[in-house]
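Slide 14.
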Amino acid sequence: MQNHRKPIPNPRIGALSKHFPRVHALTAGVAVFVLVLAVFIPTPEVEARRMPLPVKLSPVTGETGEAHLDTTLAPHQAVPLASAGTEALQSLSLKIRNGDTLTDLFKRAKVHASEMYHLLGSGREAKQLARLAPGEELTFLLNPEGQLQRLELHKDRLSQVRFTRTTGNTFKHTLVQREPDSHPAYRHGEISSSLFVAGSEAGLSDSLIMEMADVFSSDIDFALDIRKGDSFSIMFEEKFFDGEKIGNGPILAVSFTNQGRTYSAVRYVDNKGDANYFTPEGKSMRKAFIRTPLDIVRISSHFNPRRLHPVFKSRRPHNGTDYAAPRGTPVYATGDGRVIASSYSKANGNYIFIQHGERYVTRYLHLTKRKVKKGQRVQQRQVIGTVGSTGYATGPHLHYEFLVDGRHRNPATIVRKLPKAKSVPTSEMTRFKNQTQPLLAKLASYQGPALAKLDENNP
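Slide 15: predicted structure.
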């Protein structure tokens, strides 16, 4: 059985309540309520102190080297006013591999596919993103919510295509082209076995060697005329980016000594912006025809009206020149003209005939592939086919013929007798001299020490 005892009242509190007026009691209650609010509800200053400090920005560096921020946000994105425009963009770069698609790259970057479709639909310039090439690079710039703010397509170290989100929630297309630093370089070489060996020993790339051969292709047959002791001096541009060499520019001035005769050429850009090579006197280095339809190959059979045929073993005229070269080697049109035949026959295999004006015809036989059609216009050094062994051929080679007024002429000698292309107009000669004389003077200043050193090594 439980005892229910009433609590004994405190006589001090009871006495106090009896003597405390009702108005004062109400006032005391309000004071207690305000005190509770002050303790448990933070003031604006207290709330501000509790907010995290703004994130430290990581600027995105632009192509000029100056730091800048791209903080453009989509219109529907809610951003607190206190932090609007202060988010740092996250950057992620992906190298494009064989077989990669744009979908693969967006997945790898963890960017929603809807962003990709929105970008592709922003304009025709964005369609190039569907044709990505291995070795190119994509850089994604995202805001903290993972939304794409900018996509950069790096085609190479100098070319960049940007797609930047605008305030209208579309993407703006920008092409950024950086210019490398260019400095003139000089090389000198003497031929002991071949032009390619001498050029490589002098530090020239294969493309520069071929460019030099092309400059003199109307004057020197590099398959027939080259001799031991021939030499060259070449001045060209070297291109640097951030202090690192990234490639070569064009030949500026060059000289080639062949069998004791020296040929010189200088690059000139005319008032229309077209660049060509001329002699120091302003005569064009480009004849109506180049000497050979192939790049630096071996002549396996010369023009010979009484040659013994290698297949039929009988005396039959060889009305052209045979150039031995690997199957698939590009074959060039030796001059501007129109294709009058592009077909196949049992004897000639794949063949092409080109008419040049009224008097000249060139013929190209035993091709693996024909790359032009009858009636097509072609330009000098345009690839018209590739070397093969079709028809009556014992191995891969090109049979090349040159006809003047319907009569076969020796292709190795006829070009020397034909006129060159137009020279620099008289009205432009002052401009030509002002532009080219400093280049020729610089080449001569390089040649002096180089030739002196060569004489010391060969007393």
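Speaker note: Residues 221 and 306 are 23 Å apart (CA to CA).
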